[in-house]
Specification:
The protein is of the alpha/beta class. Strands 1-8-7-2-5-6 form a six-stranded parallel beta sheet, with helices on both faces. It is globular and about 75 Å long. The protein starts with 14 loop residues before the first helix and ends with a helix.
């Protein structure tokens, strides 16, 4: 049995058809670039380094997966940056936000343990167990934990999206992008951001509630009080 031969798509033969095809391609390009353009516009000069980020009371570290119960290398690098900022006196409290949707998977507690091993006091760490994606983490930081200004810590390919979404959620944000070698994971993360940028723009426009909200939690206020004490 012969396999059907796949024919390449035919280009329109008429000038009018060709013009419409070109317009459709251009419109598609504009739509594809719109989310990225929005992120670059919103973030502006909000990206800094651990050396020059303004002193801010709270840092937010986003979850990035666990390996055998321990932070993945990418997540560990985010936490290292937070610990560095704490030791330098540039932040006072770390809000760790991640996935705890299963009993056997707990990003926030693994992040807390990692930070305490690197000199951040347990009383200065606050856990958000329902940070299932970047938008949820940003909204919950503002509405549940009362954070209105923060340093956000993530990899370079993700940090603009994090800053843009937290700004839209009402958190005045500075982003610290952690440098990584351009390995397979880095390229995967960069490619994923192309699709994630579109979802981020929709989240900013539609402003959906996170998967879980709940009552206001005083964890950040108590941690800051402990810092002042």
């Amino acid at each position: 049995m012969r396999r059907p031969r796949l024919r390449p798509p035919r280009l329109p033969r008429t000038r009018r058809g060709q013009r419409r095809a070109v317009q459709a391609v251009m419109a598609g390009c504009v739509l594809a670039l719109l989310p990225a353009t929005w992120m670059w516009t919103v973030t502006g000069d909000r990206l800094r380094t651990t050396a020059d980020v303004p002193r801010t009371e709270v840092a937010v570290v986003f979850g990035a997966g666990l390996w055998r119960g321990e932070p993945s290398p990418y997540l560990a690098h985010r936490l290292d940056a937070a610990a560095e900022l704490y030791r330098a006196g540039r932040i006072e409290v770390v809000l760790v936000t991640g996935d705890n949707s299963r009993e056997d998977y707990d990003e926030p507690d693994a992040m807390r343990a990692y930070l305490t091993r690197r000199g951040v006091p347990d009383a200065r760490i606050v856990s958000d167990y329902a940070g299932f994606d970047t938008w949820d983490s940003c909204v919950r930081a503002r509405r549940i934990f009362g954070v209105d200004e923060a340093v956000l810590i993530s990899q370079g390919f993700h940090i603009r999206r994090a800053v843009a979404l937290c700004e839209e959620a009402g958190v005045r944000s500075y982003g610290v992008g952690v440098a990584e070698p351009h390995d397979t994971t880095w390229y995967y993360g960069g490619a994923r951001e192309v699709l994630a940028a579109g979802k981020a723009l929709l989240d900013a426009v539609l402003e959906p509630d996170p998967r879980f909200l709940g009552p206001r939690e005083p964890g950040v206020d108590r941690a800051l009080a402990a810092a002042d004490g």
